[in-house]
């Protein structure tokens, strides 16, 4: 690994012609090999930040380096280090996946023979090799998303940026794509992910930053930030019907969702053993339990003061 971060941003600013200040001095580091989440509510500045890093938007001030390469001074060199998977599907639907990948590599000067070998490798990794010679318009939504990732990987980018790669796909396809993205990261590419599925970020990413109103309001290791939550919630599935009166538990709050479901809110410092002991004393048998809500969503709402999920 290099000593340089995969992405280094210092005092990045962007003011549009309509005087909207989208970025207000953003500073951020993403380390080599990381799987990093960039989260924020709608209009927070995520798209502008990704646009500047991928050289699609001109910054008003500040500095961006990719593995030590300044994107303003050495744009071509920096862009060869980056793979971008935009939210919109933007390949030719009347081309075959193999041709899409090979032609994309050709734009970056990869010889055709080598590009064909890379295309087979990436399409196999994306579980699309059996579709390599069909028209892309016949692919399912999830396959098209995976093709976007395969195309971005044709240049063997050291930094892969994904802008809501699983938007609009069902949970089965989404989890299949999670597997693909983990494999991409395991192969050595640093990954930056924006997503409005917060459970996706919690499942995949080791570090994150939350941006709001053009500023980074929180950043750090995922586990460390989630540990800041003071309370946590659980849902208990109860074997028999709940009694009319629920037991009192000091420092915790119980409420009945329905006759067989119990909701618990309690401080993280409190032991669940005491809760189970009190429920047993009341004759309430817990059949199973699960977290009430995604923890990252709780953190996100508490920091941004918004009920809107990241987008």
UniProtKB/TrEMBL annotation:
Taxonomically, the superkingdom here is Bacteria
CDD domains, sorted: ABC_DR_subfamily_A
Q: Which residues form the ABC transporter domain?
A: 7-238
Entry keyword set: ATP-binding, Nucleotide-binding, Transport
Any GO molecular function: ATP hydrolysis activity
Q: Where are the transmembrane segments?
A: none
Q: Which InterPro entries match?
A: AAA+_ATPase, ABC_transporter-like_ATP-bd, ABC_transporter-like_CS, ABC_transporter_ATP-binding, P-loop_NTPase
PANTHER family per the UniProt record, alphabetical: ABC TRANSPORTER ATP-BINDING PROTEIN, ABC-TYPE MULTIDRUG TRANSPORT SYSTEM, ATPASE COMPONENT
Protein name from the UniProt record: ABC transporter ATP-binding protein
């Amino acid at each position: 690994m290099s000593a340089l971060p995969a992405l280094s941003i210092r005092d990045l600013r962007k003011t549009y012609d309509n005087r909207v200040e989208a970025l207000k001095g953003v500073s951020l580091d993403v380390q080599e090999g990381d799987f990093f989440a960039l989260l924020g509510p709608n209009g927070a500045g995520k798209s502008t930040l990704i646009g500047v890093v991928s050289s699609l938007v001109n910054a008003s001030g500040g500095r961006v380096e990719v593995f030590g390469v300044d994107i303003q001074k050495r744009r071509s060199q920096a862009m060869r280090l980056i793979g971008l998977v935009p939210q919109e599907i933007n390949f030719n639907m009347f081309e075959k996946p193999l041709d899409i990948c090979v032609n994309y590599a050709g734009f970056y000067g990869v010889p055709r023979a080598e590009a064909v070998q890379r295309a087979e490798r990436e399409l196999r990794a994306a579980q699309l090799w059996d579709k390599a010679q069909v028209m892309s318009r016949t692919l399912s939504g999830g396959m098209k998303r995976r093709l976007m990732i395969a195309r971005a990987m044709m240049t063997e980018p050291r930094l892969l940026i994904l802008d809501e790669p699983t938007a609009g796909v069902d949970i089965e396809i989404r989890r299949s794509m999670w597997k693909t993205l983990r494999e991409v990261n395991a192969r050595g590419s640093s990954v930056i992910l924006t997503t409005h599925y917060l459970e996706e970020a919690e499942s995949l990413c080791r570090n994150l930053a939350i941006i709001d109103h053009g500023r980074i309001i929180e950043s750090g290791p995922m586990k460390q930030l989630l540990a800041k939550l003071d309370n946590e919630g659980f849902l208990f599935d109860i074997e028999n019907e709940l009694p009319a009166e629920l037991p009192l538990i000091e420092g915790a709050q119980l409420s009945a969702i329905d006759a067989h479901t119990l909701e618990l809110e309690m401080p993280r410092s409190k032991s669940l053993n005491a809760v189970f002991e009190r429920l047993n004393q009341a004759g309430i048998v817990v059949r199973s339990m699960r977290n009430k809500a995604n923890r990252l969503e709780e953190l996100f709402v508490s920091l941004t003061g918004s009920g809107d999920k990241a987008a």
